[in-house]
Automatic annotation (TrEMBL):
Highest taxon in the source lineage: Bacteria
Location of the MDMPI C-terminal domain: 142-240
Lineage per the UniProt record: Bacteria, Bacillati, Actinomycetota, Actinomycetes, Mycobacteriales
InterPro entries: DinB/YfiT-like (IPR034660), Maleyloyr_isom (IPR017517), MDMPI_C-term_domain (IPR010872), MDMPI_metal-binding (IPR024344)
Residue ranges constituting the Mycothiol-dependent maleylpyruvate isomerase metal-binding domain according to the UniProt record: 6-129
Alphabetic keyword roster: Isomerase
The protein's name: Maleylpyruvate isomerase family mycothiol-dependent enzyme
PANTHER family in UniProt: CONSERVED PROTEIN
Length: 248
């Protein structure tokens, strides 16, 4: 997948949505926020990330120290500010090299890691906006499936004292879209080695099936399992526990 192109495209899709919407629209999936605040958060987030990469930081950057971190008042200028932020991330990675080690909230990682992370940050927050405006999120199945993979990976790496899956249990997710192959299946296990996941097809205590987009919406808690038209098989409490105890 071309994550660079996806980042630019997802950013533009959010900006196009914002241009024609009421900026005061409440965002139910981000309680207390309006669409304008969400727009600023995403736009500044790209600049925050680009600055971390460009400066090869090994420590986090205070969001208040992000250069040009506020959108202009004029709508056209604000849209240009928003779209250019995504390009700044790509340019920063090109400048330092994709393998250069930089700070991330999951420890030092190659700078290129941030491009994929920002893609899925854009996707989920565009979902926030689309849902708030009464629309339906449309994503390529491959992109949505990778979003599920990335989200599971982040949850597994978090290593919380109260893990989202009890020891000895297995949770299986299955995307119903055609053509995804193994990348449309996820098996999460908790064994003596801790939490792990793979694209293997393994029967577990619970299984969840739906389109990749709807699985992404549900696993990021942007839609309930019912609203996302997911089928839950086996012990639904295993799936509910995962949702209630994942850290993001």
């Amino acid at each position: 997948m071309d994550f660079r192109a996806a980042l630019i495209e997802e950013t533009k899709a959010f900006a196009d949505l914002y241009r024609d919407a009421d900026p005061a629209t409440p965002i139910p999936t981000c309680p207390g926020w309006t669409l304008q605040q969400l727009f600023k958060h995403v736009g500044r987030g790209n600049r925050w990330c680009a600055q971390i990469i460009g400066e090869r930081r090994t420590e986090p950057l205070d969001p208040r120290e992000v250069r040009d971190g506020k959108p202009p008042e004029d709508l056209d200028d604000a849209i240009a500010w928003f779209n250019s932020g995504a390009q700044l991330v790509v340019d920063a990675v090109d400048h330092v090299g994709a393998e250069a080690r930089v700070w991330t909230f999951n420890g030092g990682k190659p700078a290129g890691w941030w491009i994929r992370r920002r893609v899925h940050e854009q996707v989920v927050h565009r979902a926030d906006a689309v849902l708030a405006l009464g629309g339906d999120l449309t994503l390529p199945a491959e992109l949505a499936a990778d979003g599920v993979s990335e989200w599971i990976d982040l949850a597994v790496q978090a290593r919380r004292p109260d893990p989202p899956l009890a020891r000895g249990f297995t949770l299986h997710l299955h995307a119903s879209d055609d053509g995804l192959g193994p990348t449309g299946e996820w098996t999460i296990t908790h064994d003596e080695d801790g939490l792990n996941w793979s694209h293997d097809h393994v029967k577990g205590e619970a299984a969840v099936k739906g389109t990749a987009t709807n699985l992404l919406l549900a696993i990021t808690r942007r839609a309930s399992s019912a609203d996302a038209a997911l089928e839950v098989f086996g012990d639904a409490a295993v799936w509910d526990g995962w949702l209630s105890r994942t850290p993001f």
